[in-house]
Amino acid sequence: AGMHAAMAGALTIPNSAPRARPALMKQTGIEFLPEEAIERAKEGNPIEKAKLAKDPTSAWTDVYEFAAKIREGSLTWEEVEKADMNSRLKYCGMLHRDKRTPGRFMFRLRVPNGIVTSDQMRFYADRVEPYGPDLGVVDITTRQNIQLRGITLEDAPDVIDGLHARNQTSFQSALDNVRNMVGSPLAGIDPLEMIDTRPYCNALSDLISLDPVTQTRGNPVWGNLPRKFNICVSGSRDDFAHTHINDIGLQPTVHATTGEMGFNVVLGGYMSIKRVAH
């Protein structure tokens, strides 16, 4: 129950859009791993080995360099290292499919609690429209998220900068990062609501993806977690956010003794009937 006060004090929502990322990164995600984990990764699958060869948090600056070179004609997307195209750029939320849509990316955003503004929606539409109806598509996902399809590598910085200018990001939305923060779909309007989940989803998302030192998007502290790590916040006893199918679920509750509002924490949920039952 004391989590309510702790979160309110420790997790704050920035008042302005994050600044552009500095040219040099001082820390990488691998630097926060214990030595035992690094040793295991050396014998791991190709993705883990690629991460050790070049930390994927480098994608936060690499994407700008790749795009600039493609625009000036000194590089083509086919010449970009395959591990960058298919793996490391996922740290920017950019997912590439060699066979289905070669040279095109699906941008997965971070949209805490699924809340978007009309300006943001117009931006999504404007970004994908030039690619035509077959490639330029906006998805609304089951985790209250947005995905932009058809984006080319040379156009990626325009998408990233446009999102950051609107206090959104696509950074750390794929691969070994925490997925979008899910909250109540009726947040703020549910008459039986115990807690408005929106500020908590925003604060948790910023905790994961906002560098506390530079105040730029991309936080290496949380840049090397198990794949598809899911967190949700429920706002009422109806549990519209489905805490039991998330790795971490926060359920609102009132402390039996003090009456303080806080959360019960549910751990280890999964999209499996047997796993949930267990």
UniProtKB/TrEMBL annotation:
The keyword Hydrolase does not apply. The keyword rRNA-binding does not apply. GO terms for molecular function: 4 iron, 4 sulfur cluster binding; heme binding; metal ion binding; oxidoreductase activity. Residues 98-165 form the Nitrite/Sulfite reductase ferredoxin-like domain. Residues 176-276 form the Nitrite/sulphite reductase 4Fe-4S domain. InterPro entries: NIR_SIR_4Fe-4S, NiRdtase/SiRdtase_haem-b_fer, Nit/Sulf_reduc_fer-like_dom_sf, NO2/SO3_Rdtase_4Fe4S_dom, NO2/SO3_Rdtase_4Fe4S_sf. It comes from the Eukaryota. Pfam families: NIR_SIR, NIR_SIR_ferr. Keywords: 4Fe-4S, Heme, Iron, Iron-sulfur, Metal-binding, Oxidoreductase. Belongs to the nitrite and sulfite reductase 4Fe-4S domain family. This is Ferredoxin--nitrite reductase. It comes from Strombidinopsis acuminata.
